[in-house]
Design goal:
Elements: H1 3-6, H2 9-16, E1 21-22, H3 24-41, E2 48-49, E3 59-60, E4 64-67, E5 72-77, E6 91-98, E7 105-109, E8 112-113, E9 115-116, H4 132-149, E10 155-161, H5 164-168, H6 173-176, E11 178-179, E12 181-182, E13 190-191, H7 196-212, E14 217-221, H8 224-234, E15 241-243, H9 248-257, E16 262-268, H10 269-276, H11 291-300, H12 305-312, H13 317-327, H14 331-347, E17 353-359, E18 365-368
Parallel strand pairs: 7-10, 8-12, 14-15, 14-16, 16-17
Antiparallel strand pairs: 1-13, 2-3, 4-5, 5-6, 6-10, 9-11, 17-18
């Protein structure tokens, strides 16, 4: 078996032995596709297939079908695979109704889906908490169904989750200003199953495979967006890309004992601000973005006390970053530099050169260290 087959992100997932699942965004897209098809044809496709950003074409069984003169509704039960996701088993519904020509696609929050009430998220205040990638997926599938049946594709999509408001109490939504229910999430449509021991073991295997293949540069990535950024920056092969997830410490400690010439760490600004603050486990259940720490860093970059105060009370790390960008304070670079310092501390003098890339939600590099 060649090294490409043994290493890289997909091999890491396979090595954990855990079954992946589907995001709420994928479920909402499937429900929307089925509902809009029924609205145009009178029949619900069951199972309904969709195409995810990486080309997978999963099929979803429908748990709910309802067709009226005003619209169509379909529901899918979320299967999170072997991940202990609080939304596993939740019924995700989509109700689609036609709008006047030229209206486009409009999203509404139904029961169990939250509304954004504070700045700093990738959605405007007042918008339903349906994240950008699920919105794009739903628009794309509406366009495909419309094209197949000669329709205009001007629709209102209302996404709801049964008992979503209750489930949301187990999430950080309330603290982020997402009120009334859950967020509809997902960047790839796939839930990567989470297990500390299995995932850390897969990281170690990834380092071993890269070293055995003679690679001198590997990258620890927090997710698929950071992986794409690293590819664009360095043109590294698959087996050089370690799906670090939240386990920055696991990567650093293993590379300390099994050095490579160069390690790149790439992840979202907020997540890497935790590493910069000294956290080695970046999971939201075990570490939080420290806005006071970010304010102190911003002061080092020239922020005045008014800006520092606004950073310290920002809703999210992203909001703090945007405040600094508007003021010309290089907070992204400061976080990346401090994260690099923390990484070197963990490496304890091992012969490994380290660089850090902080990115925003779109994968744009906002800090280098």
């Amino acid at each position: 078996m060649n090294a490409e087959a043994q290493g890289g992100r997909s091999a890491q997932l396979k090595h954990t032995g855990l079954r992946p699942g589907w995001t709420t965004g994928a479920c909402a897209t499937a429900a929307t596709t089925a509902a809009y098809t029924a609205l145009l044809t009178g029949d619900f496709p069951d199972p309904v297939s969709i195409t995810l950003p990486k080309g997978q074409t999963p099929a979803f069984a429908l748990a709910v079908e309802e067709l009226t003169t005003e619209g169509a509704s379909a529901g899918v039960v979320k299967d999170a695979g072997d991940d202990p996701d609080v939304t596993h088993g939740a019924l995700v519904r989509s109700t689609v109704r036609k709008l006047p020509p030229g209206s486009g696609v409009v999203f509404r929050a139904g029961p169990g889906v939250g509304t954004v009430t504070l700045p700093g998220l990738p959605l405007e205040v007042g918008e339903p908490a349906v994240n950008p990638v699920p919105r794009r997926l739903m628009r794309e599938h509406v366009e495909r169904v419309a094209a197949a049946h000669g329709a205009a594709g001007d629709v209102e999509i209302t996404v709801s989750v049964d008992h979503g408001e209750e489930i949301a109490r187990s999430t950080w939504n309330g603290r982020l200003g997402i009120l009334g229910g859950l967020s509809i999430l997902g960047t790839t449509g796939v839930v990567v199953p989470y297990s500390c021991s299995a995932w850390i073991d897969s990281i170690r295997r990834g380092v071993d495979v890269a070293r055995a293949a003679g690679l001198t540069h590997v990258a620890g990535c927090t997710g698929s967006t950071s992986e794409r950024t690293v590819r664009a920056e360095y043109d590294l092969p698959d087996i050089a890309l370690l799906d670090m997830g939240d386990f920055a410490g696991a990567v650093l400690k293993y590379v300390r004992r099994h050095p490579v010439d160069r390690l790149t760490i790439c992840g979202g600004f907020a997540k890497l601000s935790k590493l910069a603050a000294g956290h080695l486990d970046l999971h939201s259940a075990r570490s939080q973005v420290d806005k006071a720490f970010l304010a102190d860093l911003a002061r080092l970059g020239g922020a005045d006390e008014d800006l520092a105060a606004r950073i310290a009370t920002a809703n999210t790390g992203l909001e703090a970053l945007r405040l600094c960008e508007a003021a010309g304070v290089p907070l992204g670079d400061l976080v990346a530099a401090r994260a690099r310092e923390e990484a070197l501390t963990v490496l304890r003098g091992a012969p490994v050169a380290v660089d850090v890339l902080c990115i925003d939600r779109a994968g744009v590099v906002v800090g280098r260290g």
